[in-house]
Design brief:
single chain; about 300 residues; 9 helices; mainly alpha
């Protein structure tokens, strides 16, 4: 009996070789699972970003139908040619999208707005159009056309430490790839995504061709394009808020002509071969900088790719 017990105990024990084998198997399984989990997480984040762009798309359509403006929000930068005499401050596509959908102060869009950086308008009232202390002003507001939880609206000063000539109080809608922007001036621990770029199509034009052969100046070479690169150029030139040494691939050339061409190649519909025709040539495009926070790379998420 004692001999049987001794044998049983010996058989139940692990040897060092068996233990190491089990540990090796576990390590192999972990090495296989971690990349797979990372891919699943990345895919889930991409789905979340596409859902946000869809929400913005619905909101833009609601703005066009119910705001009194009559069409999609403008995207031209007031500080770029043709200059807006009311507003020399950079105020372009990303900021105007935010104003249209949530207002200059997150309380809704005012139909008398002139889409300028200080929130004033064309009413000639001698006071800002966006006045939350005035009941009549609030009754005239439209929207917000998107839930603030889906909008991810942040002031530029929350994202960039140096907004240069921008007004730091102006809002933009940020994507879902939130990172801790250690340079944010309002809250050091705030996490924000990158601004969503917005360009409205100039539907009166029919192609997207920078005229290099004519030797025209840059401003003239793109003046008849459907999508106008300078609508968000100043914002792109702010660079990356989390690393001032890094710049965006579609804003990294000393010769700005090359940036124009990079942008055009990014938005062109290659299925059309007779002319250079962009996606969504009759409406607007939206661009998220994606996981890496850099505009113009393969991980950008847009509303105009064939994969959407």
């Amino acid at each position: 009996m004692e001999k049987w017990k001794s044998v049983s105990k010996k058989r139940l024990a692990f040897t060092i070789v068996e233990l190491l084998t089990v540990m090796a198997v576990i390590a192999i399984l972990i090495s296989l699972l971690v990349p797979a989990l990372a891919l699943v997480k990345a895919f889930a984040k991409e789905i979340e970003q596409r859902a946000q762009l869809h929400s913005i798309t619905v909101a833009i359509d609601m703005f066009a139908a119910n705001s009194g403006y009559g069409t999609y929000p403008p995207s031209n930068d007031n500080s770029m040619p043709p200059l807006d005499p009311q507003d020399p401050t950079p105020y372009g596509g990303a900021q105007k999208l935010a104003e249209a959908l949530v207002g200059w102060d997150l309380l809704g869009y005012h139909p008398k707005s002139s889409f300028i950086s200080d929130g004033d308008g064309s009413a000639g009232l001698g006071q800002p159009v966006y006045d939350p202390t005035n009941r009549r002003n609030m009754d005239e507001r439209k929207g917000p056309f998107i839930e603030l939880e889906n909008a991810n609206a942040y002031r530029l000063g929350d994202i960039y430490a140096n907004v240069q000539s921008f007004d730091p109080l102006n809002y933009v809608l940020c994507d879902v790839y939130a990172k801790k922007r250690t340079l944010a001036v309002n809250q050091a621990n705030k996490k924000t995504g990158m601004p969503i770029l917005y360009y409205r199509a100039r539907a009166e034009n029919f192609n997207q061709t920078f005229d290099l052969l004519a030797g025209a100046p840059a401003a003239n070479g793109i003046e008849d394009d459907i999508y106008y690169y300078p609508d968000n150029q100043n914002l792109l030139l702010l660079g990356a808020p989390d690393d001032g040494a890094l710049i965006h691939p579609i804003a990294d050339d000393a010769a700005i002509v090359d940036d124009y061409l990079d942008f055009e190649n990014m938005i062109l519909n290659n299925e059309i071969i007779t002319i250079r025709r962009p996606y969504r040539a009759g409406s607007y495009i939206l661009i998220s900088a994606g996981k890496d926070g850099r505009y113009g790379k393969a991980d950008d998420i847009t509303n105009f790719t064939t994969a959407e």
